[in-house]
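During the reporting period the student researcher (J.K.) took over the structure-prediction task from the postdoctoral fellow and processed the backlog of single-chain submissions. One of the processed entries is reproduced below for the supervisory committee.
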Amino acid sequence: MTGDTIKIEALSAQTVDDHLPELARLLNTCVATGASVSFVLPHEIEDSLAFWTESVRPAVADGKRVLLVAHANGRLAGSVQLDCDTPPNQPHRGEVTKLLVHPDARQQGVARALMYALEDQARMQGRRLLTLDTASDVAEHLYKSLGYQRVGAIPGYARDPIKDRYDATVIMYKAL
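J.K. obtained the following structure tokens:
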């Protein structure tokens, strides 16, 4: 993938279905390789399909979520979501969720391209503050390099997707 163009696309509720098999495989692979994105093993492909069809697609259809995907080498390399379902006193804020990059596409600019596109989408929607949480030191480094500030860590926040333990999460934000 190095040297290839990464293409970012915002999916509509209808086009989620066009990408459903790829999205399900992406999530399933990321969970199987230890991504802390709310799921634990065993995590079957049916679990991934249900997530995209029952949680993400309706939120995209309702305008409460933006789903971006990255294509490289003719395949889906990653995705990220902007959750805009905020309370009435927070119309200026959005939450970055489920940054997923296929293991074969990591360290090749996919996450960075997705985050730049997500920030552009947030600005277009009048969102001036982004928040996120992350369990990974690698991801925290990426977010810091993009200008996100670390607020702090919450110990024992989420179960590790593979091991029987509870890991901390780091809370971060960025003013756009």
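The committee noted the following: Residues 37 and 119 are 20 Å apart (CA to CA).
J.K. will present the remaining backlog at the next meeting.
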